[in-house]
């Protein structure tokens, strides 16, 4: 059963990134119109995706004929060709698509995409690289940057805090850290933390703070 997607989604460019995105949207039960100019890609995908069309996405009329002008969200997943990616975003702006997500492969590319009118610019290589750096150099188990220098992270209880009650830790005063949730090793879900809860070595925490505060908290020893 497909979800009633408010206005529909298209993914343009079925390279590695666009293909994974399309698969993930399908797994979430969203129907996707997938577009690529390469007939072999279209052939390969026609068995897996409900709607797949062959078209040059820099061609505004071709997109209009496919009904792209009526869609609410379109992702331009073309990476290698900056020209094709920029011209595609321009065509989508001309068609009046309300939410254009575009993939950049360099900082300059991301600036051009924003300038021509993409509302959301994503830079997967840069984002994955930055995130990995945080995971490698700290003891963080997971890390998500929220923008404006803030982040949410998952980590084990830092050694100095093991055995302390939450009321003693004064995380916000001392470390600028807000505790969002805690999970005992025997539990499956994170839960709210009340003052009386004592931190154990095997607990997993979800915290929020500036990137600097999160890094500092994670390296307490
Ligand atoms: P990845 O790094 O994710 O593999 P690529 O940039 O190599 O991404 O792949 C981009 C995809 O976009 C390719 O399948 C290519 O055929 C498609 N593509 C490139 N230009 C156009 C265009 N003008 N119209 C439609 N599809 C295009």
Automatic annotation (TrEMBL):
GO MF assignments: monoatomic cation transmembrane transporter activity
Residues in RCK N-terminal domain copies: 6-122
Signal peptide: none
RCK C-terminal domain: residues covered: 138-221
Biological processes annotated in GO: potassium ion transport
Stored PANTHER family: KTR SYSTEM POTASSIUM UPTAKE PROTEIN C (PTHR43833:SF7), POTASSIUM CHANNEL PROTEIN 2-RELATED-RELATED (PTHR43833)
Protein name: TrkA family potassium uptake protein
